[in-house]
Amino acid sequence: MPRQFDGSRVRAVRRGKDLHQKELAEMVGVSAPTVARWESGQDFPKGEKLPAIAVALGQPLDALFPHDGPPDLQLLRCDAGLSVAQAAAAIGTSRVPVSYAESGRRRLNDAYVQPLAKAYGVTEEALLDAQDCSFGLRPRVSRDQQSSAPRTVGEKINYLLEYGYVGQEAPSDEEIARLVNEHAGVVAVTADDIAALRTGATTEASEVVRAGLAHALQVDLDLLRDDAELDPKARQFMEGLRFLTSIHRGQILGLAARGNSSGLSAEMMAHINQLVGELKHKLPEVQDGE
């Protein structure tokens, strides 16, 4: 997933450093009007320019331009400050293998893996993991990622409330309790019980309550089981919700469509397309081959 670019934040950091637009432009290798367009939101820098901007402003790349999820090939290239043409030159080929691998159309030839990893300043294993991401496959999950994933029923309720109600108001504890009780046919929970689950005051929930929660939050019951790590389908669903919400909130401003190799449902793809269409004016134009 691409890094998030916020022109107003760049402007604030630049001014805090007592830098003029012209000075920043010279340090990054562009014109002052280009920097002005970035900061006003009229245009967006190419991803490979972000490391130079961060260095010029004396900011960590991840802090100034955060991103969600594991890196894909495009992110590795951009973080190395390389264009597609420069990456191709590093492995002695045309731009086609690099572009095709980044867009999930054709994997890199084995002979390109070692030199490209060297050019990007990463291990071969990291490059192959990033290639899996470009093809819609999730790499091995680290311990940090496992520990940060929602595990308990309360954590999952919070996650669904935060990311599952794009463009609409999430239900209150009272509303959730009412829907759970309607589904159960008895008074199984109160609003205080729901609040206790969400705050972690309790982690216990009966099968009746879990089934009612699945009904209330419109998810599969299996998603609300307690587990140390979500299964692939559940993780894909959870990340899909966060992805949609990020688009809707305008947090993802650099987006290049990569098709549907990850197996998202037709309904979710339709929702993605609708949201991207609504935010088209915020998205940079994607140039062919880049």
**Mean pLDDT across all amino acids:** 79
Order of H and E elements: HHHHHHHHHHHHHHHHH
Characterize the overall form.
Answer: elongated
Oligomer: single chain
Number of helices: 17
- Count of individual beta strands: 0
Low-confidence stretches: 141-147, 249-266, 278-290
Radius of gyration: 22 Å
Percent of residues in β-strands: under 5%
Which structural class should the secondary elements be placed in?
Answer: mainly alpha
Tell me about the largest β-sheet. Answer: none
User: Share of helix among residues?
Assistant: 55-70%
What is the terminal separation in angstroms?
15 Å
Descriptive account of the structure:
With 290 residues, the protein is mainly α. The chain contains 17 helices and no strands. The chain has helices spanning 7-16, 21-28, 32-40, 50-56, 61-64, 73-79, 84-90, 96-102, 110-120, 124-134, 143-148, 153-163, 173-184, 191-199, 207-217, 232-248, 266-278. The longest helix is centred in the last third of the chain and has 17 residues, at 232-248.
List keywords for this structure.
single chain; 290 residues; mainly alpha; 17 helices; elongated
Structure in a nutshell:
The protein has 290 residues and is mainly α.
Show the helix and strand layout:
Blueprint: H1 7-16, H2 21-28, H3 32-40, H4 50-56, H5 61-64, H6 73-79, H7 84-90, H8 96-102, H9 110-120, H10 124-134, H11 143-148, H12 153-163, H13 173-184, H14 191-199, H15 207-217, H16 232-248, H17 266-278
Helix pairs in contact: 1-3, 2-3, 6-10, 9-10, 12-14, 12-16, 13-14, 13-15, 16-17
